[in-house]
Amino acid sequence: MKNEDARRAATLADVAERAGVSAKTVSRVVNEHPSVRDTTRERVKAVIAETGFQLNLAARSLAASQSYLIGTFVADTASLYYSELARGAARACRALGYHLVTEEFDQRNPVAADHYERTLRQTRCDGMILPPPLCDDLALLDALERDGVRYVRISPMLDPDRSVAVFAHDADGVSQLARHLWEKGHRRFGVINGPSNFASSATRRDALIAAVCALGGSASDVTASKMLWDGTFPATGYRTAAQLLKDAPDISAIFTFNDELALGVLGYAHENGLRVPKDLAVAGFDDSDASSFAWPSLTTVSQPIVDMAVRAVQALVRDSPHARRRIECPVRLVIRASTGGE
Amino acid sequence: MKNEDARRAATLADVAERAGVSAKTVSRVVNEHPSVRDTTRERVKAVIAETGFQLNLAARSLAASQSYLIGTFVADTASLYYSELARGAARACRALGYHLVTEEFDQRNPVAADHYERTLRQTRCDGMILPPPLCDDLALLDALERDGVRYVRISPMLDPDRSVAVFAHDADGVSQLARHLWEKGHRRFGVINGPSNFASSATRRDALIAAVCALGGSASDVTASKMLWDGTFPATGYRTAAQLLKDAPDISAIFTFNDELALGVLGYAHENGLRVPKDLAVAGFDDSDASSFAWPSLTTVSQPIVDMAVRAVQALVRDSPHARRRIECPVRLVIRASTGGE
DNA sequence: TTGAAAGCGCTAACAA
DNA sequence: TTGTTAGCGCTTTCAA
């Protein structure tokens, strides 16, 4: 697949000749090196504008041994999460002169390190963004470190100080939610946990318990249930809600690990004559499309995924290679009809 | 951002030396050129495995004047569509030895051609995938052709024969849907159109009318309304449904351009005491998450977006530069509760 | 502030 | 079947 009839693109040398300077000077102008006389710079810039010259990324990469590429993964499962992540990452890359390379990650065949070595490695990415659950794939981290490829992890669970890591301030959002529910008069709470390989699953449950205690309740007011997986999140939410309400019938509010689980809880309520939010308040997490489309619309906590991706790319490009910091991004409680918000 | 402490990666020359052959021979092995003696090939492959050698993409691009990069855009608006597209494209790229570069596309500042020239151009992508609405940006197409960059368009509206174009067979899905509704006894239909800059908006409406006529009805049995935009799709669906049912109170089934509009219709039905599907059947399009999470779950037409992206990449890599064909991908009617499916 | 020369790691074109 | 040579279009390093 060669694009035969491409008009040969202008090169540095072409621009140099037309501007009557050396190629190196053009390079200095393009890279905004300060030591170029203003008049020279203007002349070169004029020729660049005229010719539409753009650096050849491959040549630059080769010479500078920097690829100006940031890599990331999309999971092989439909999710708004990854589309937001890509959006934020692409936006930040563009602002910093980088490009975003996306690779598909196969959840069922989780030898991510192998996948990396056989494909992404040849791009010599300058950095990688690792969303969950890849951020906790230790073999992948080892492989990246071996190649000297830096990485930033999004919401990692394991060994959070091993690298720069970006977190949403989940606990804060959950505690806002607890306060909201408490003010609406709720005293007994149900929690449907998420997958155990997501750090945030335990974090969110614990944050709810802590918040309820801080408001004057006790840990025994919160009944947590792990997911009874049933194929999809909504189906799982449905099934787990049934169990939860059987185990603790006095629960008046259910908080779920994500919005999709909450949709299942809503479905359960509908089918069993529980009015939402009168008989049962329901709250999710993520502020995905699902939450605003739900009936009634779902109270949820909005994760700033786009921002998190932007921060990740910035850290990749600007931090020193051995930086190991925690970047915490604020979340936002979105109150909707399912908890009696207006 | 240089990864200073990267162990210097093995090069072709390193492998050549260790295997006792010329660099060119190693190149032939890596590129699966047939004219290498089996014994030589094995020896070289062994050294490659041993050293973990991987071609340097930048060097290869420069020498071969091919980037092995495919470019695409994510819109700056959350949508499963783009995440599925990226997924399919990444999968196909990987299979063919290419990499996927993603750029954010700003809907509000739609000078896509300019955007391309200032950023993606430096990657010298071998090909581009253009989803709607970019596929109909004539200035962008001109710019790509000027640079000799080939492109494949997904569901273009304008000038469909200008390039290879991939389509979902919308009309077929709509006609299956019409038959299903007809069999359920519906005779008067409402249609909520999509944005007028999407070709499929008119296609789907017309397909419904044609299908109804084919079933023995007439064009006047279908009342179409353009969207009364209200900030989001669900809100728009709500508002448009209200208008539609006022204009044509005898409608018993509403078909919308996408699932999100249908969610608004469902909300309208709930708030106005219309039982779904008893009083009003509702059907959407796309089979997005929204449709299975809706209450009741939504009958919809499933677009094979992942497949479409795969086909697009394959066409990019394998077709001749001047190919101009139409690739039609089959859709699938998904019958759920909102039309009385079981 | 500017330029000249060398070379990044690969492939194309040719020769053996 | 294999090897040699000469670049691809930049940046680096060093010199002017």
From TrEMBL, chains A, B:
Gene3D superfamilies hit by this protein? 3.40.50.2300, lambda repressor-like DNA-binding domains (1.10.260.40)
Is Metal-binding tagged as a keyword?
A: no
Q: Residues in domain HTH lacI-type?
A: 10-64
Q: Which GO terms describe its molecular function?
A: DNA-binding transcription factor activity; transcription cis-regulatory region binding
Q: InterPro entries given for it?
A: HTH_LacI, LacI/GalR-like_sensor, Lambda_DNA-bd_dom_sf, Peripla_BP_I
Name the CDD domains for this protein.
HTH_LacI
On whether Transcription regulation is a keyword of this UniProt record, the answer is: yes
> What UniProt keywords are attached to this protein's entry?
DNA-binding, Transcription, Transcription regulation
SUPFAM superfamilies for the chain: lambda repressor-like DNA-binding domains, Periplasmic binding protein-like I
Origin: domain of life: Bacteria
As given in the record, the signal peptide range reads: none
Q: Which PANTHER family match?
A: LACI-RELATED TRANSCRIPTIONAL REPRESSOR (PTHR30146), LACTOSE OPERON REPRESSOR (PTHR30146:SF153)
Q: What is this protein called in UniProt?
A: LacI family transcriptional regulator
